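Entry 12.
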Amino acid sequence: MKPPLKIGLAGLGTVGREVARRLAAGIPGLRLAAIAVRDPEKSYTMLAGLPDVNILKADALADDCDVIVEALPPKEFRTVAIPAIEFGRIFVPLSVGQLLDNWDLLERARKNGARILVPSGAILGLDAVRAAAEGTIHSVTMVTRKPPKGLEDAPYLVERGISLARVTTPLKIFEGSARDGARGFPANVNVAAALSLAGIGPDKTRLEIWADPTVERNTHCIEIHADTARFSMTIENAPSENPRTGRIVALSVVALLRGLVSELKVGT
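Predicted 3D structure (tokens):
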């Protein structure tokens, strides 16, 4: 039998903790080998009850782990991405929007035999979008609606002095490309970046973001017009303890990791 893949987890926030817990509970073929955190002392409390794992710096995970999962604040993205790719590892980014401004990582991956695997995260239908992209996609549009609290402190809003504290009716706060949306809302719309990478790219993918106090769930509506099909998709994600992130995100990562070793993998 093959030895289990050693998983290195960078970040122990809302998503990271759930991924760690599920790996530690046991998934055949996978082993949680190391975790990187900014505050090791705090992490020991979070890891209470889990099997022993190495606590490392983010740039050291790639030394011995086969798969590196990035679940860090966007500004720390390259700290874990570059070593993972230089060592030829499988790199699983959650800060997907950061790929759009760090495109050199793809060339590095080609040279070093690394792979960058983007999880579906809080979005659906990327398999259908990827299939449609083998033909011709004419347009991709996504409309995101989140409770105002889930959009607070986004750089786009801070730079423009926009406050959502008193929003009582749905308010469109952004309309533009997925690239600009990912830059302006790096912790909020990684789904738009993932959609753009699966389809027609970040500059042609259109995005609207609404601060909507009438919704309780983070909602994404997507419309695709292609030569092979027209389809629309809507997902309403139950928020986690972090209002910016849906509970399904961590499970998406676990499903991706399971697919690396499972004898059966469903979907494109």
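Annotation: The mean pLDDT is 92. The domain at 5-122+248-261 is CATH 3.40.50.720 (Rossmann fold).
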